[in-house]
Amino acid sequence: xxxxxxxxxxxxxxxxxxxxxxxxxxxxxxxxxxxxxxxxxxxxxxxxxxxxxxxxxxxxxxxxxxxxxxxxxxxxxxxxxxxxxxxxxxxxxxxxxxxxxxxxxxxxxxxxxxxxxxxxxxxxxxxxxxxxxxxxxxxxxxxxxxxxxxxxxxxxxxxxxxxxxxxxxxxxxxxxxxxxxxxxxxxxxxxxxxxxx
Length: 197
Hints:
It comes from Flavihumibacter solisilvae. This protein is about 40% helix and about 15% strand. It contains eight helices and six strands, in the order βαααβαβαβαβαβα.
């Protein structure tokens, strides 16, 4: 189970980025579905890996050769800033004993310059389920890289959100099938997991 960027700034109604996610997050019941998936994973003994984005600081990307507009916006708005409430994991997704927190990724891919691949291999894991944020950026980039590295990839289409329905459509209808082995709803995933007990 890869839990991507479960920060207050994304998931709490007072978070800096929540207003941009609000319509979709509420329509798909994001918090409820993420909680169901992560809770079931823990009950079934499925390892939970936190895949966190770099917590921003005002000096981030200074003198970088090619920072993206998203990176600069994150820096300027101080979304999930280091040592702040917004850069803290949401209360519903606090790490539990046995969970693994991966090194922070700087852009969108949870594998790039982190220990995610090493940790998965050390735990003899070759199938990943992705939930969290954002569907068309970090979820997609991490899922695509997982496939490239030989992992079986499952996307949970109502346990993630994006800033627009077009982005959700791109993530799950257009791009998802090019790298994911399964794209399921929360209920479909839970049914499969419970049947394998």
